Amino acid sequence: MSLYKQMAKDKLRTLEVDPNKILTIIIGNYEYSESKANLPLVVNDLESLEKLFRERNHNVYSFANVTFEILDRILFKIAHSEQVPKSLIFYYTGHGDCVQAEVSHLIENKEVPSVVKKISV
């Protein structure tokens, strides 16, 4: 088992939903196989976003280099929690792929602080 996978599983065990707080899940994938270039600056994204959301009293969990299996476990744990968070923010940074031309909304990093401010009021 990879170190990142073990770290994610350990952190997942501590994941709790607080109904009085916004639950923020941050995932940063920065190490890739030969098919895609590594993204070392994603580490900065993880650190700065975690700090930004914690300063706004969010319930924050950040994960690095997660697999689909870990992502599935994170979402399963949230969906099956006895508590419902005040709101849920899911932030992903890393490479992405379009699946069957589905529509998604992309927020540039420079927009994140103003978006967080709007939803944290």
UniProtKB/TrEMBL annotation:
Q: Which InterPro entries match?
A: Caspase-like_dom_sf (IPR029030), Pept_C14_caspase (IPR011600), Pept_C14_p20 (IPR001309)
Every copy of the Caspase family p20 domain together lies at 23-96
Q: Which domain of life is it from?
A: Eukaryota
Q: Name one GO biological process term.
A: proteolysis
Alphabetized GO MF terms: cysteine-type endopeptidase activity
Q: Which residues form a coiled coil?
A: none
Know the name of this protein?
Answer: Caspase family p20 domain-containing protein
